[in-house]
Amino acid sequence: MESLYEILDHFFGLDPVHRQLLVGSALAVGGILAYLLLRRKPVKSIPVGEGWWGAGEKPQSEDESIRPFTVETSDKEIEDLHGRIDGSRYTDPLEGSAFQYGFNSTYLKKVVSYWKNEFDWKKQVAVLNKYPHYKTKIEGLDVHFIHVRPTSRPNQRVLPIMLVHGWPGSFYEFYKILPILTENQGGLVFEVICPSIPGYGFSEAPHKQGFNSLAAARIFHTLMERLGFSQYYLQGGDWGALITTNMAQMKPQNVKGLHVNMIITNRNFKTLLTIILGPYLPSLVGLTQEDVRRLFPFFEKNVWEMLRESGYMHIQATKPDTAGCGLNDSPVGLAAYILEKFSTWTHTKYKDLDDGGLERKYTLDDLLTNVMIYWTTRSIVPSMRFYKENLKGDFDKRVDASVAVLVPSGLAAFPEELIHCPKAWAVTKYHNIYSYTSMPRGGHFAAFEEPQLLADDIFQFVRKVEKC
Question: Which family does the UniProt entry place this protein in (predicted)?
């Protein structure tokens, strides 16, 4: 790799004196600009706003009751699934292609055979009902959530926390971390509220255009207030990271702390300066050696990889209903579309394996339970629409893009996350970072894949905030 000086020589033919002057000037200007960006007085919150996403006109009043809900199934539902599976058609994969072209159909046949002949949906429904489920009407939508209270023990401090999932996940992603969070850990324990994003799983889909992460954030604040909480912690990954970040920006007085395992920042001058100088002068731009390892070469490890992995996003951000028609009609197509993400987003090298590495971190029962939540609720299309609603305009010009997160923040950087965000970038968005952890292993679906690691990081973050 050429050094920075060699690159300058190549493009500008500078002698050593002028070369050093140019680099010094660039660093000085960059430092001043970065300082000014960080010193700007942040706007403290974003507008709460209001919305109505139900069918038809908004009524004068809304039923605010909280109703118990039970996940159910039937023989007819299972028979329909099996009939559709039997009618599926497959295309043979290219020789030696593994998961490079998407979900390998040879392995898909094995998954589908297990799905029909061994997977017990009734048993998994009982697993889902292990925790108490509820629904309540907010802004015209039936919002589904589970509410898990810890066992009452003497001398333990109970703190409320909301966990928010993303796509193509569901509330079920948190079933392995729930027992850890609700078990006394050194006198500290959580009361967990885990909602389904409207349009996902058992939450009603919006009937009107425009439902984005800001609307979800407002609805989830209303949910917490309806449950009687005035202050609470938040945790999220994927869309859940954006929604909980918006919640912290919207009502910081209600959020005791925010923990995310996908770190979202805006493009700015400091990011550009880091990319340019990071490989040569990492400490000058605030990068650690771990940051350098994860980031560079930047285009190979970030830009090109993201381009390879973001085709789904362009479809869902433009014409979700078109692709969604086939996925909503074919259980095999739906499984391939969803499970391919649980392969590649867990570890990018899994695409070189004939089975996509799916069973290295997950069981087929767990993976197919998540797929069944989408299948039985017919929620794949509205879940895909969430991309269009959030990305239909310039994301950097949204109201939340210019508002810093001022609440205590804990950031968990998993090594196989889609894009690595160093702390040097994170501080431009999250201005009150209590902990930034470079996690030893794990990918995009942290709670599903590494529940103990994620729980440990949540506990250490909250202890710092609570000073206990």
Answer: Belongs to the peptidase S33 family.
Q: What is the mean pLDDT of the chain?
A: 91
If you ran DSSP here, which 8-state letter would residue 403 be given?
-
Same domain, 27 and 175: no
Please, which pLDDT band fits residue 285 given cuts at 50, 70 and 90? Answer: confident
Helix (H) or strand (E) holding 136: strand 133-138
Give the total number of structural domains in the chain: 2
Q: What is the mean pLDDT of residues 343-355?
A: 96
State in Å, rounded, how far the first CA of the chain is from the last one: 48
pLDDT value of residue 41: 53
Separation between Cα atoms, residue 73 and residue 367, nearest integer Å: 18
Residues 6 and 109 in one domain: no
Q: Are residues 253 and 128 in the same domain?
A: yes
* CA 268 to mean position of chain CA atoms: 22
Average pLDDT over residues 287-298: 88
Residues 17 and 149 grouped into a single domain: no
Q: Does residue 47 form part of some domain?
A: no
Please compute the mean of the pLDDT values over residues 328-348 and round it to a whole number: 97
Q: Note whether residue 57 is domain-resident.
A: no
User: What sign results for the dihedral spanned by CA atoms 130, 131, 135, 139?
Assistant: negative
Burial class (CB in 10 A: 0-12, 13-18, 19+), 463: middle
Looking at the fold, whether 89 and 24 belong to one and the same domain comes out as no
With tokens 């299972």, the residue in question is 78
Question: Does some domain include residue 436?
Answer: yes
Predicted pLDDT of residue 366: 98
pLDDT in tens, 113-157: 999 999 999 999 999 999 999 999 999 999 999 999 998 888 899
| Same domain membership, residue 22 and residue 117 | no
Whose CA is closest to 214, among 64, 389, 407? Answer: 389
Looking at residue 15, what is its pLDDT?
A: 52
CATH of residue 367: 3.40.50.1820
Full domain range(s) for residue 33:
1-39
- Looking at residue 279, its pLDDT comes to 87
Report in angstroms the alpha-carbon separations of 54 from 199, 206, 210, 289: 12, 6, 12, 50
pLDDT of 224 > 50? The answer is yes
Mind telling me the catalytic residues?
Answer: 238, 387, 444
Number of H helices, E strands in the chain: 21, 9
pLDDT(181) > 50: yes
The model's pLDDT over 428-438, given as tens digits with 9 standing for 90+, comes to 999 999 999 99
Residue 58 lies in a domain: no
CB-based contacts of 159: which residues, under 8 Å, 6+ apart? 188, 189, 190, 191, 232, 233, 256, 462, 466
Q: Does 332 lie in the same domain as 436?
A: yes
Which of 281, 313, 333, 269 lies closest to 419 in space, CA to CA?
A: 313
